[in-house]
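Hey, I'm writing a tutorial for new members on how sequence and structure tokens pair up, and I'd like a real worked example in the thread rather than a made-up one. If someone can provide the structure for the chain below, I'll link this post from the tutorial.
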Amino acid sequence: MYPTSILRGLRPEELRLLAQAHDDQAEALRAAASRRGDEITRAAAAQKLVAYLHSLPDLVAARAQSMPEDAAIRMVSRETGVPLETVAAHWRHAKKRIAEEARERRNREIMRLAARGWTNSAIGARLDLHPSTVARIIQRALRATAAMAAE
């Protein structure tokens, strides 16, 4: 079941959408929806649900600092009532996004240092990378730049 703090903020249509998404919780959500009288759009309900689901990786990350990742995922699933597969999928997506952002930051730093005239060895020493890795990243960035210029 969803935490009551989340359910309290939802309107009848939002509760109905949640109920449709999770059949096992449908009866309790429909009952809560029937006790509320106001109506909202499906888009607003979907937006609240998406925002809630996007908060799941933060909950897992907070718990994963003190326990194994799979245990943190199970705990968040139990606490929120969101199916285990959904929590795990959102966690995998967030981890992938975080890794991509870190890689992009590192690549920008490499290109910034290369533009200042640093050698591959100096960049590698500063960022704890092998010089050939630095060269490959620079080469890939230059190829992408040339392809964009050709368009």
